[in-house]
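lol ok so funny story. i was supposed to be doing the assay writeup but got distracted and ended up predicting the structure for this chain instead. priorities right. anyway since i did it might as well share w the group, maybe its usefull for someone
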Amino acid sequence: MTTRKEFLVKTGMLTAGVVLLPSFSIPPKNPKKNLGVQLYTFREEMAADAVGTLKKIAALGIKQIESARSAEGLYYGLKPKEMKGICEDLGMTLRSGHVALDADWEKTMDLAQESGQEYLICSSLPSNGQTADNYKAVAEAFNKAGEECKRRNIKFGYHNHEYEFESENGEVFYDILLNNTQPDLVYMELDLGWVVVAGKDPLDYFERYQGRFPLWHLKDMDMEKKESTEFGKGGLDIPLMLKHKKQSGLKYIFIEQEEYSSTPFESMEHNMKFMKNL
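and the output, tada:
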């Protein structure tokens, strides 16, 4: 099974540039209102039949959609307004998208405006080296991208993997991004699974950088294999994370699972039941 990181490398997205893509609290009367999915979870299914797959996703009770860059384009071969309309007809909102901060950045923002989505999330760092200077330069580029998005009423953000939690001279690279980006311009989408795999505690980040994480990638992780698994089977204490959603500034949760016990739909059905039982 190809992991998302391997997919980005194979398609050149990890080396070609930064990839793009929101504050959430689950309303007590409707805990699924702001619960969504990152469509990379259904990457093969979306490539084969985007509309049919979205119908199956809606049937699971998912309300928020975050797209991922694919071989068929940012919207899986659909036009931005077309995908927006399909999601709305199914009772879902195309809320966010993972894209690249590259030579097509202007076009990417134009398409996002057409789709009506709220967030553009950069999902991977340019491969210019794991150095403090590179992360400071990236932070500057993120602030600029955030300004450009803000003028278009779009929120710009960044999604982490595990490598951002490496350090240089005792300074964690992810902290450099947080310390050198403007909170009103750069919204962090915290992938909780990669945080714990990196040996860090998401609650520590919620405490030190309160309100900086309006978006989550909720991903349980097999700590031995260092790959995603169904909720409750890995090393992420999901109920504990949710108790601290206010500190995080959480607005939307996007479930992402890259590896499955059987099929992505069966895994997502398990995950949705897990969340409902909370």
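The first strand starts at residue 18 and ends at 20. The two ends are 30 Å apart (CA to CA).
back to the writeup now i swear
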